[in-house]
Amino acid sequence: MKYPIYLDYSATTPVDPRVAEQMIPWLTEHFGNPASRSHAYGWESEEAVEKARENVAALVGADAKEIVWTSGATESNNLAIKGAANFYSGKGKHLITLKTEHKAVLDTMRELERQGFEVTYLDVKEDGLIDLGVFKATLRPDTILVSVMFVNNEIGVIQPIAEIGEICREKGIIFHVDAAQATGKVEVDLSKLKVDLMSFSAHKTYGPKGIGALYVRRKPRVRLEAQMHGGGHERGMRSGTLATHQIVGMGEAFRIAKEEMVSENERIRALRDRLLKGLSTIEETFVNGDLSKRVPHNLNMSFAYVEGESLIMAIKDVAVSSGSACTSASLEPSYVLRALGREDELAHSSIRFTIGRFTTEEDVDYTINLLREKVGKLRELSPLWDMFKDGIDLNTVQWAAH
Amino acid sequence: MFAPLYLDNNASTQIDARVFEVMLPYLRERFGNASSRHEYGRLTRDAIDRARQQVAAAVGAHATEVVFTSGGSEANNLFVKGAAALLKPGVIAIGATEHPCVREPAKQLVRQGWSVLELPVKLDGHLDVEAAQELITAKRPMLVSQMLANNECGAVNDVAALSAVVKQAGGFLHSDAVQALGKIPVAFRELGVNAMTLSSHKIGGPIGAGALVLDKRLELQALIAGGGHERGLRSGTENVAAIVGFGAACELASSELGMRSANMRAARDLLEAGLSALDARVFGGVEPRLPNTSYFAFEGVDGDTLVGKLDRAGFAIASGAACSSANPEPSRTLLAMGVVPQLARGAVRVSMGATTKLEDVKRFLEVLRETLLQLRQLTAVSVE
Amino acid sequence: MAYSDKVLDHYENPRNVGSFEKGDIEVGTGMVGAPACGDVMKLQIKVNAQTGVIEDAKFKTYGCGSAIASSSLVTEWVKGKTLDEAVNIKNTQIAEELALPPVKIHCSILAEDAIKAAVEDYKKKHA
């Protein structure tokens, strides 16, 4: 086995070797700028870009003309939210999102607040899912945009996108969905879903980093204000030289995802269930987020009375994440787990295991054994574990402020 | 395999084989998210740090002054929109021949109350330094963006001459150095700019990486929010492979600058000697200029037609800039240089690469001569 | 985050893990921190009543690697010291010894507080 064992597929995935193989010729001999209209180098690149666009569209039930290339899901989220909010600002100034969204959505919303928009950050239920009743009650006549992620990056729960879409469409509200964590994991069919804008990333689905896409619905047509201006690439929605090799990589990655996701997800679900079963034999562990409305790839667990960072240190043969990779440098407990109402200490002791295409049964078994051993060792070190064993309710203890 | 001779290096360059080698592991086993705190993440974080040093070193900047972006267009947008967002609306001055990715974001600022001032060029395509200095002193722009080298005619501009007046007017100076890097020496401090744009795929690196180099005086608002990567100036998971390639390409571009520019110059001079025998009108062509770029037209010959013919004959060159693509308008750069639209429509650009061979240029000239002969006969027939 | 070799050593081979009987008259117990902040340290000292010298020390810590290392280190340092000497251990010394990065300085502060709390608890018992 190769150490550390990679169980952090939601942070990023390796490029599938089949994808890398497709990319390399476009990085070396076919190097033309797809915008070059005057020679074959440009044309062949353009053709490859369009073929990839079709592959991306096919995975999500869209038309190729509805796919706009970006540098990644973060840019897609920025473009969708700022672009739509600015375009439709004449209709209203109210935006709605969830407290558990990715920073790319939350930080963008904060920026719009500084520009005079009003944003409602909805709480989620204890299982991590949106409360549709609360959501409906939050809608206002001046609500112009709703942004809800398809699959949460930390706890893997799947939001009811179809239902939210129905509500938004009925009220004429633009609905954006961050689907960075969804592609290849859940079925995404934009011919049925009433979604207007959807963000995609390649590197969460075995494609390369540095490329993503934004779906922009044509019927009914959704308008955006461009955020990056220049040569007018991507029908004016996003200027900048297109990176052919990366686009080809995303196309191939999405093509493979469409072809293999059903069988792959079955295999991954079995591995996740094995991991869950193994880890559940450890006392005082809790799964964060709903288990049924969840992608099969994700297991987020709290190991009570053990601090997360020291646990990650103890299991350094397994590459996992505590909280989201993007908030890495901070010592704050995950804002997503806090939004579920998890007490801070359980949030602190959470680990996100994300399983993927190259995970094996041996990887899972090794991880279970390692966790059993290390959690035991750290609990022996933990004064909180002693107190728990002595029957003391930690919530009744007066802790010195620190 | 049919491989046309590539003479369109200002649009994009072929990746250097050594750069490709350095990148490969980052498309394969070194795949970690650079924000992850485990081994996979540390490996890619270290690689990005190294690339940042390489990019900084290539232009004599400090690594902490380098912000990676998805390319030159984004870096130019980041300067124009990002700096403007934190300032009270005022005047932004841009060169008359700037790339659309400076011009268009500047135009966007008008709605927020900014006005756009153009710094004129002379007939040879160079920035008119005296006129620009006077304009800046009179209109006191907060933001000035003047490209170092023009992508179409290859004129190299005296950006440094604007530094003092911009500072005096209390503004910030930016230069798009995308076409200059790898062809002429580019020194961040000597230019006296606050910010500078670089791009990977114009110097033998991959498409998909660029940088805004900026000093600490200049504050920007990020264009892309979320996660706080690149000191909060550019969020989004880093494109590690492309950044690594960009770093390696920068290092090679500086260590081989002398050799590369001499090679480009020899190829270009050979071309231009041949062009004068064919009665070409060369645009610009006055030093200081890039060693690799020739921009020219032939009276009565349509540029797109000529380029199309040459493409079928196995030569990849450009008419105008790649980005303005489907645009049938004559080049803005040429109009700014006082070229009449009819002649401007004939413009074609040949841009040499680091390894363009003299015999290939000779071959090109031969085919060009034949093609012109054909085209002129055709026009002669149609006139009759 | 890169940990120093000393942090890793204490983390992997923590010294003096364990507990003394809390009610023992010779024992002083300091418990500092809070679970919600991500670290709780329990430091116990066993004091020779005649000499006033700390003869033994034990700890248990819930926290990151640096917190565990800081508490492990101070159990070594306080042994053989008088109570007055022990309370003079400064967090900066701990941070320096373990080469703690700035974001982990609070761990050394917590360890210093734990010593003070244990000494205070001992003194309270003997007041």
Provide a short characterization of the protein structure.
Chain A has 402 residues and is an alpha/beta fold. Chain A is built from twelve helices and twelve strands. The longest helix of chain A has 37 residues, at 244-280.
Describe the structure.
The complex is a heterotrimer of chains A (402), B (384) and C (127). Helix content of chain A is 39%, strand content 13%. Chain A has 402 residues and is an alpha/beta fold. Chain A is globular. Residues 324-330 of chain A have low confidence and may be disordered. Chain B is an alpha/beta fold and 384 residues long. Chain B has 2 domains: 5-13 and 257-383, Aspartate Aminotransferase, domain 1 (Alpha-Beta Complex), CATH 3.90.1150; 17-255, 3-Layer(aba) Sandwich (Aspartate Aminotransferase, domain 2), CATH 3.40.640.10. In chain B, helix 6 (160-168) links the parallel strand 5 and strand 6. In chain B, helix 3 packs parallel to helix 4 (100-108). The model of chain B has no long low-confidence stretch (mean pLDDT 94). Chain C is built from 5 helices and 3 strands; from the N terminus they run H-E-E-E-H-H-H-H. Chain C has helices spanning 5-12, 65-78, 83-87, 91-98, 105-125; strands spanning 27-34, 39-48, 53-62. A 3-stranded antiparallel sheet of chain C has the order 1-2-3. In chain C, helix 2 (65-78) crosses helix 5. The chains are: A alpha/beta (402), B alpha/beta (384), C alpha+beta (127).
